[in-house]
Amino acid sequence: MAHALTSTAPAILSNQLLDAGAVMQARIDLAACFRMAAKLGMHEGICNHFSAMVPGSDSLFLVNPYGWAFSEITASRLLVCDFEGRVVAGSGVPEATAFYIHARVHLNRPRARVAMHTHMPNATALAMLEGPPLAWVGQTALKFHGRLVVDDHYNGLALDTDEGDRIAASMGDADIVFMRNHGVMVVGPDIASVWDDLYYLERACEVQRLALSTGRRLKEVAPEVIERTAAQMREGDSESARLHLESIKRILDREAPDYRQ
User: What is the model's pTM?
Assistant: First the structure.
């Protein structure tokens, strides 16, 4: 299902002044997200991908290498790539769809400093159904009210810049994209907030799927309550997301500390 990118001509990093400490911290944080996503069953073989713009750069991004499962990712194993598909640092190449989706999203949507794309089961299941994927009936789902779009135009694998550009354009200013017949992508300004959204999106989709499986009607929430609750959640999101990421690093430090290597 995956395709390796073949454009790996060397690029030069020497003209970019980067904070080595900030770059290493981004590597560690992103590696932690890969590991926890694997632990929670939010991955699919070697086919899904997370990326983050390198701190201090607007043209380089971190992404997982082709052929490695989420559970195998470490901080040093992440690649640094440019928007032309060249590997600037690291061993290996990105998976082709990882490059064509993530590079074009980062290039065309500068606010998307981080992008996480998965085929996590519950969100992907809802992306395969007719109609709106999320119903505004559960508290967790309300976190995403007014923040998502649906890309209805599945075109097969993203193996060229045109498809990557189309996906980026379909996002508009949304943070969450349900990619019809495919999966989901979550974007945002930093690793902590995007991980937090990805995690809670899957939880919201899981409980909605369970509720629908009863065959009973979903209990609606009043529109004014939906709006108020969504706003309340956004107020505390940044700090909650930061603490969430710190918690998963503490768990991994006990159970799988090699993610930091």
Answer: 0.93
